[in-house]
Design goal:
This protein has a domain of 197 residues: Alpha-Beta Barrel (TIM Barrel), CATH 3.20.20. Helix 7 links the parallel strand 4 and strand 5. It has 291 residues and is of the alpha/beta class. The chain has ten helices and seven strands. The strands form two sheets. Strands 1, 2, 3, 6 and 7 form a five-stranded parallel sheet that branches. The protein has a two-stranded parallel sheet with strand order 4-5.
Length: 291
């Protein structure tokens, strides 16, 4: 077979030789670059992460998805941190008062309930009852309760002369002072019945009149449940509750009333303690008086 070489064969041969030469040169340069990089890397000191480096690491920010109207979503932050309760800025106080005593047996049971519940109250005593049971007045006073004036004979003071009003208050005042060696500061007119003459006469004797904000009407002998409900539905901060010391159903209702109010955040104070806490004058509805 006769081999025939034409001109274009030489063209392809030269092209192939040049291509192989270019590939060889490129391979040699790449190998040199790689060796230099490895050499430089091995000659550098190894890096180590410190705690400060870790603190400075921040995760990439993920953009918030836009709402349908292309506005940024509203961020709602809680007003109270999780696991913490909001502080109560204003402590709530309540004063329990007991009228018309002291009464044998009933007053002693009442004092036991108050003592077990760690409640201090104010007793508006009647002079005639003080004469009959001075030992109960002493017990009331010695157990840390406050004693106040509820007149001597529990009469409607608006029907009395100024002289008789003063006599009702002074006689009871002398009886209590002979037992406790202290002068009373507050008085309550029987039935909440008073006029300007009553107020002025008492003021001249150094007394401040105290009424009430809650009247459960236990003197009408409602059920213990009704007494409890009337107190709990009408009680408020700096309120004054008017109980009576000789009522059986009041003694039954009292422990539940105390425990419920304590759970609601109330502290129990005497009238003097409330007066020190900016005691406001109670407001009463005379239409509900049934004495």
């Amino acid at each position: 077979m006769k081999l025939e070489i034409k001109r274009y064969h030489f063209f392809f041969l030269v092209l192939a030789v040049n291509l192989l030469a270019a590939v060889a040169i490129f391979s040699r340069e790449s190998s040199d670059t790689l060796q230099k990089s490895v050499s430089n890397l091995s000659s550098q000191p190894k890096a180590s992460l410190t705690f400060n480096d870790l603190k400075n690491i921040r995760p990439p920010r993920i953009p918030e998805p836009a709402s349908r109207n292309n506005k940024a979503p509203v961020q709602i932050r809680p007003t109270i941190a999780k696991g913490r309760l909001a502080p109560n800025p204003t402590p709530k106080i309540i004063a329990f008062t007991f009228d018309d005593g002291p009464h044998p047996q009933m007053t002693e049971r009442l004092l036991k309930i108050l003592n077990e519940s760690q409640v201090r109250a104010t007793f508006f005593v009647v002079g005639k009852q003080v004469e009959l049971h001075p030992e109960l007045v002493q017990k009331i006073f010695s157990e840390g309760h406050e004693i106040a004036n509820h007149t001597y004979s529990h009469r409607n003071m608006t029907t009395l002369s100024s002289q008789d009003i003063i006599g009702e208050l002074e006689k009871t005042d002398r009886l209590v002072a002979s037992i406790t060696d202290q002068k009373m500061k507050y008085f309550r007119p029987p039935g909440g019945q008073y006029n300007q003459e009553v107020v002025e006469s008492a003021k001249n004797l150094g007394y401040e009149m105290v009424l009430w904000t809650v009247l459960p009407q236990d003197h009408l002998n409602p059920s213990p449940e009704l007494i409890r409900d009337r107190v709990l539905k009408n009680v408020s901060n700096q309120g004054i509750v008017l109980f009576h010391s000789g009522i059986e159903n009041t003694l039954i209702a009292l422990p539940k009333v105390i425990s419920t109010l304590r759970k609601q955040g109330y502290s129990f104070v005497t009238i003097s303690q409330m007066r020190e806490n900016q005691f406001r004058e109670p407001v009463i509805d005379l239409a509900h008086l049934r004495r």
